[in-house]
TrEMBL record:
Lineage: Bacteria, Pseudomonadati, Myxococcota, Myxococcia, Myxococcales
Source organism, top-level taxon: Bacteria
Signal peptide: none
UniProt name for this protein: Nudix hydrolase domain-containing protein
Stretches assigned to the Nudix hydrolase domain: 56-217
Amino acid sequence: MRPSSSNVTDIEIIEDFSATARCDEGFLRVRRLRCRNRRADGSSSSVYRVDVVDRPRLDAVSVLIYRRASDGNVEVLTRMNLRPAAYFRREQTASMTVPDTVSYLRVEEIVAGLLEPSDKGEEGLRRRAAEEVKEEAGYTVRPEDIQLLGGAFFLAPGILSEKVFPAAVDVTGVEPGEVEGDGSPLEEGIHLQWRPLSAVLEACRRGDIADAKTEVSLTRLLARLA
């Protein structure tokens, strides 16, 4: 466990320029489409609207970092990150069908990063995963140490085009270095901690860890270790 380098207590909105911003600029791009279904008999459905959210870099890789403790049990590393989109849920309280009183200033999850255009194929996935492990957790591993945990999956296929490629790496006996990060304000106050795999999985199932890629990766690693 490492201490936080900054005690962020709130995220202040300086300006909401949603009404004047184009939907194809910024970190996310929203495509607003009119579509219709084409059928095998040549007929078509009525026209309906579809919104698709893309990133300039389409897909991501996640990495479940784990180690074997002295008692033989498996421990996994999670990371607390500032997540403004989750935090600002609190402004939508009136729209919630199920009350949610949790403050999601930080969300606990595993290491992940966007795939660059140069990250081609399995070799590119392993290389990017190893780089993210070094940047976000401080562990130096080789691309060939990365274990791919099966096929990629959508997080929200109704609106998001992004797929996540799950991976894992065993760092038993590896000493961590400094966490580099990317220097952005979103990386203020990150916090890493080791816990038993079973405890983290139970936290996911309780909803204390509300991150889908973390739970998917945990269950896939369990299946592989078994």
